[in-house]
Amino acid sequence: MAHAWSSVVAIVSGLGACACGSTAERARPSPQDAVERRVEEWLAELTLEEKVEQMHGSGFAPVDDLYGTAENARLGIPSFWMVDGPRGVRAGRATTFPVGIARGATWDVDLEREIGEAMGRETAAKGGNVLLAPTINVLRHPRWGRAQETYGEDPAHLGALGVAFVEGVQRHVLASAKHFAANSIENTRLSVSVELDERALREIYTPHFERVVRDANVASVMSAYNRVNGEYCAENEVLLRTLLKDGWGFDGFVESDWLAGTRSTVGSALGGLDIEMPVSNHYGFRLVAAVQAGEVPEATIDDSVRRILRRKLQYSLDTPAARDPAVVESAPHVELARRAAREGIVLLRNVGGALPLDRAAIGRLAVVGRLADVPRLGDEGSSNAQPTRAVSPLAGIVAGAGGISVESFLTSAPSSAELDSISGADAAVVVIALEPDDEGEKLPGGGGDRSSLALPAEDVALLQAVSARQPRTLVVLEAGGPVLTEPWISGTAAVLMAWYPGMEGGHALAEILFGDHAPSGRLPAVFPVQEADLPPFDATSDQVTYGLLHGQAWLDARGTEAAFPLGFGLGYSTIRYDAIGLDGSSIAADGSLTASVTVTNTGARAQAEVVQLYASVVESAIERAPVRLVGFARVELAPGEAATVEIPLRGRDLAYWDAAAQAFVLEPAGIVLSAGPSAAERPVSAAVTPR
């Protein structure tokens, strides 16, 4: 969250090549034995004061928008230069991608790997070497102000996309997975204690972090502001040592969130925090004194410094590559942003084939909404990357309309004459967008958690006024998370969820509206009928309790139907699920198997499908989600084409955490694997038994 504080006071693919600029990449990591030898040589030569100097930021004010740590000129030890980046590199102008939840809606791990690589390239081009991304916190409730930064509500989905992003970034610079852990409230983030048991911690709020550690070897992890079970995350030994370092074998470093992320000297050092950012409020001379007083063993300091030096050598920060500023906002990166925006748009409703619009059959199109000509990139907190230019919905529609006459009505309260004109058009596109004051990182004067999932009253009134007069009302929603679609949706012909779609969002929207590409986005979080259908959201108390269920699982456990379930999304074609097969009939908690799902495009248009694999435990004796996402794969299908996709499944994803055994175990009960286009529609299934 680095730049926010400056505002306060001033699954199934290989790595693949990124088609985004130069394909040259530096070999990493460096040979491990050579790295470890040099780490020990440096460590032996460092004084206590010099060691501690490696463990904190070097100044509150960024240099060229980068936050540094100390170098050691005597030994040639380089600095870290950290920069924010969930939606783009926040240093000057940079390619600005759709927000995390929009990219989560693509369910496209290959695309996310390419985006990670592009951000890694641009970070290096700016002189940075640590990108403070990805955000992989569970979206427990869509009122969370930073819902837009994460990929969605499901740990399996978060883990797959997080791994891909980290793999891409770390071809060039270090990635930092954040915010560890159980961070999902803004307004009380500096004080709230999230109370949860070991099952919830292990099964819901940390497995995606474990995946980026084990599967992607993420270079660093940022601790969260909040407390977990009473202990601040930056000094929480259960999180930083028991789970992260000792349990998962993480050999990188943990840096704090900015300023208020560190609350103590001795507690943080003993708890497992390696770097205090961006200055030494608690480390520095205070940490030196704590070591000298015997309150912190020097061996603890050595462990942190080893981790820091290891990463500096593994990523060759002592011999930095030449910068290539030409990659920043390069044509391939901008095109990548456009593709991500296009793939992330979710078609929620399409009555009578209202979409796509036929350019040959449309004479006049009305575009309505006070923010229709404003590019909405996301909030104004630490993720606030900015491009040189950005395309608004109106600008994109005008550019893509061909010979269609486009008339704009940039208001939330059209006059009677304007409504007459709108009703006389062949169709009306109504753009509804939330603003930074509505949701975002909590900063003085703005942002924070949403007060409601309902759209603002003036926007609901606009939608109802237009749809009452114009039968082909096409709604475009731009927001950082799910919204309520009642009572206005019944009067609309089509609804598109565009999220905050990045610098190319307007062009991507036009491509979907006019049918140049079929929509293929799928919801990464459930849309409830009413907010009361979700678990309570408390953004005022200093203590909250998180259980095992939220989102789709919460609704399923109560037999409550969603407005739009997890994984939902319409297209311009029809997909049939033909069969599911397994390469084994049983699975162990530490084992795996592969599900093969055959799907066919039965329509007349090319269409991408996100094949989703879910698991249910028959007559489970413990509390658990009735249906749980365990894997997915995206496939492109030509008209009439059939394809079989393979989805690997880990026994771990079917298991539960047994606190007594201190292990993941499988229930001695039948397991049903089912596949389909959403959590609520799973037409093919197969049984597997635990062993």
Describe, in plain words, how this protein is organized in 3D.
It is a single chain. The protein has 691 residues and is of the alpha/beta class. 26% of the residues lie in helices and 20% in strands. The protein is built from 18 helices and 28 strands. Helix 6 (155-169) links the parallel strand 3 and strand 4 (174-180).
What descriptors fit this protein?
single chain, Rossmann fold, 6-stranded mixed β-sheet, Immunoglobulin-like, 691 residues, disordered N terminus, TIM Barrel, 28 strands, alpha/beta
List the helices and strands and how they pair.
Layout: H1 2-9, H2 32-45, H3 48-53, E1 67-68, E2 81-84, H4 100-104, H5 109-125, E3 130-132, H6 155-169, E4 174-180, E5 193-195, H7 198-205, H8 207-214, E6 220-223, E7 227-228, E8 231-232, H9 237-247, E9 253-255, H10 266-271, H11 285-292, H12 298-314, H13 331-344, E10 346-350, E11 364-368, H14 393-400, E12 405-409, H15 416-424, E13 427-433, E14 440-443, E15 446-448, H16 457-469, E16 473-478, E17 494-497, H17 505-513, E18 543-545, H18 551-557, E19 575-582, E20 586-587, E21 592-601, E22 607-617, E23 628-637, E24 642-650, E25 656-658, E26 663-665, E27 671-676, E28 684-690
Parallel strand pairs: 2-3, 3-4, 4-6, 5-7, 5-18, 6-9, 11-12, 11-13, 13-16, 16-17, 20-28
Antiparallel strand pairs: 1-2, 7-8, 10-17, 14-15, 19-21, 21-24, 22-23, 22-27, 25-26, 27-28
Helix pairs in contact: 2-12, 5-6, 5-13, 6-8, 13-17, 14-17
